[in-house]
Fold this sequence. Notes:
The protein is an alpha/beta fold. It is 45% helix and 16% strand.
Amino acid sequence: MRILLVGEYSNVHWTLAEGLREVGHEVTVVSGGDSWKGYPRDIDLAHTQTLKGHISFAWRLLCALPRMRGYDIVQLINPVFFEMRPEPHRFIFDYLRRNNKHVVMGAFGMDYYWVKVNRDLCPMRYSDFNIGAKVRTDKAAVTDAKIWIGTAAERLCRYLAERSDAIVAGLYEYWITYQLAEGGGLKSKTVFIPFPVPMPKSEMYSRAENVGTLKIFIGISKGRSVYKGTDVMLRAARRLEEKYPERVELLVAEGVPFAQYQSMMDGSDVILDQLYSYTPAMNALLAMSKGIICVGGGEEEHYDLLGEPTLRPIVNVLPDEESVYRELEQLLLQPERIGMLKRQSVEYVRKYHDPVIVAREYERLYGELMRKAL
């Protein structure tokens, strides 16, 4: 098949492309590289927010459109798949719809249904938008609601969801959201496929049997620390560091390029990530592939969706500082757990997120779409 992957989040599309190529498909990735993260792509549509940047982007987009025709499958990373206002995306979507066989929309991140369902129905005990039945009022949560509800972004998301041939959810959170979206009207076209994660060439967890110092890594996203819960997790880690100064090493990465982030992470024992999540997302999965233990979201619902009966590599925490502190302290005081959790982390990622395994799942979905059209 000829496959076009449009847009990028956390290297998902480029990693998927590598898996699809390995199993024999022709794949092109067109994206802006996910802003400052600078992920690889075949067609570069990076967009800097200056007059010169706008002109350059518009010209490169016009030149790229003829190269985005004649594919069996076009997959969009999000309803807003380029770094520009929502309104032009509808015209680009219609162009892609007319000039290619099938279009798939990704439910991989922030969109109208993610905001709306979690604010109104609260299907999970906690999320980016609710704690129990209470809607969160963090600045980022309020801002995202303003962006996606009652706006051009909402209209775009609903338009694309209705007209796409399939919707792929990459995490349990997005899957359950789309099960309930539009009164269940999108359920039949929504498929859960885990994110693809590049596996290291060799085992990297030489510190598997921890010998005294717990190395904790946390990445801070500027402006979204409170929203993602890294403020809470960082406070818990600093408390642990203060109580056990000789036994805890804390490394904080903030706003650094992807390659530097990866380098800083290497050699850690623990990554703190996504306090309000049920599932490890890309940062945590990348760490787990290296034998780094994720302290964050690992609720039973996500294991059930995977059909995983025994592996429990994620140290699940509740969305509060005491829970994070308690679980970190238990890891420090029970070092015999470290090696087992590191090995399970690698096994978990290899079992569910290896790019070739994930590519095969996409291959089945794309094949079904092609057969239905015959």
